[in-house]
Structure formats: structure tokens, C-alpha cells
């Protein structure tokens, strides 16, 4: 049996277990995942899977194996696992009821999303959590979000959720489908859903730290979005020129070079105060407009960015977190698909993979990263969970 066929896992005390499978058959993969994650008192299981799995088989097998344990998840544009960055796999983690209390909710039909409904849903989750919390809610809780990555509703949903959470950090990612852009799903209550969002509220006795950032540095030249369709995230014109042509001019590439790799290697950002937030291009359209993964609108100024050291920047951030809360039991990671493609294109893929293994990152490559009310791109966003604190239940 070669390494890719073996189940992989690492159990780190009673608080967290994680693992997964690189098997291609959905039943076999779910079975290996269960073997890796099984613990005496699970609070919940969260998984991330390749879109190529037979979803019906995967769903049925997970439901059978995990029974009444809440299982949440989504499809991906790539998985981050204890083996690093293996393609075509399933990975996940289990949180112990000894150290975590979990409340979950599903927001369906995002096309007719109600901000008031989402607000009320989160408030109800928080009220239920108050009665079960293991530690004070305000300082010992965080929320995770998983959204259909083709819904084009992230900004609206995240704004409503963030308002309802009143200071509790929100971290998450938009589900992917290996850059097919047609088939993204979230998983809740033993079935897959499209056009939906999963919200997970977690209270814990473990120390944790939220991190969100990118490695990009401004490279000077700017472009103004002079014509856009915000509802569809399409920029028709940049600097009053067809968007694709102007993007190519600024980046020094030809039109026939435009593809997902070139977008990853030639990033853009918007400046908000002293902070820059990446805006990734999803695809070029027949009319030479550009569709983005994140919000775009007329008047937005886009800045050309360059690589400031993808691997080094992540390592520096993790060293700061370790100094704050100690070595992680687990890092729940939401990593933009363009970072993975950039790592491949620049020859640092194996180095990044090894770094994620070192820091116990389990997560997925997204169509957008969530941090509080922000929906961003080309960013690593996550929650670092440290060893269980002294005031365990």
C-alpha cells in the first residue's frame, strides 16, 4: 500500500482528533475518515471533500457511521490535510464534548436571503449556547461559516451574521468545486445542499486565536473600475477600457494567457484605510469583462500586487500565534485556491504543504474567505486551537 492509499490521522489528547482519506471511492473514504476521527464523546465533526466523490454515497455513509453526531462540511477546490495538500481527498476533524459545546444552523435558499431571519437564527443559537457553555461566552466562543461558493451572497450573509454575533469572531470559507464553477455544496443534517450556508457556533475551554491575512505587497499601478455589474461581480471596464484588455496591459500578459493560473500569479487588491484586501478574478467572459470571486463595483480602485513571500509570511504569523497561545492542537484553515495555485506556479508547493503539516492545518481551498463581516480572496483565514485550558469542564 502506498502512502496515498493509507488513512492518515493524528489524535492529540481528548480535545481534538483529525484525519481523512485519499481513497477515491466515497464509501471507502468516509469509512477511513470515521476511523480517524472516532472518539468517546464527540461534540461535532466537520469535513471538507473533493467534489468528485459520489455525494449520495458519501452522505449515506457518513450518516450511517457517525449516527446522531452533528456532521457539517462542504465541497472544496482542494483539501488541506495531515498529509499536506493531497488532491482528490476528504479531510476533517472532530471536537470533543469534554472541551467544546457546539450549536449549528442551516440557512437555505440564499437567493431570497433574509437579513432579519439570519440575525434571529444566530441570536437563537447564542441563547441555546448560553445554557450549555463551558466557559464565558464573550471570550471563549467563535463561529465558523461554510457557504455555497457560487451563491454570490457572501457579503450579505456575513454582514448579518457578524452583526448578530456582537463581537464573537466569525471565520469561514466559500465551498468550491475544483474550478468548475457550477457545483458547490455544503453539508448539514445528513445531506448536501446548494444555495445554502452552514453556521457553527463553538464555545470552548481551549485557548484559540483567529488569524486572517495575505502575503501580497502593493506594486504601484492602479486601475479604476469604470463600469461594473455588482450583482454579478462583473467588471466590464477598467480605466474606461475593456476590463480584460486593461488587466492584461497592466500585468504585462497577453489575452490568450488569461486563465486561473495567471489570475493567481497576478493578484489585485482594494485599499480600505491602512489595510489591503485581495480581489481575485474568477474568469474572463466573452465580452472581455472579468468576473470576480468577491464584491466589485463602479468606482473601486484596484491595485496591482506582488508576492511578498507566501511561505515566510504564513510562518511568521504562526510563530506569533504560538508565542501567544502555545503549540496548536489544530488549525482550522480556509485558504484561497489562488494561494495554492500561486504556490504551484512559483515552486513552493511542497514547502507550503510541509508548513501546513507542521502546524496541523486541516481545512480547504476556498472560493472566498470569511472573517467577521469581510469576504476576501487570496488570503489564509483560520482558527488556531491551543491545548485545553486549566478550567476544563
TrEMBL record:
InterPro entries: FIST_C, FIST_domain_N. Residues 243-373 form the FIST C-domain domain. It comes from the Bacteria. Pfam families: FIST (PF08495), FIST_C (PF10442). Residues 41-242 form the FIST domain. This is FIST signal transduction protein.
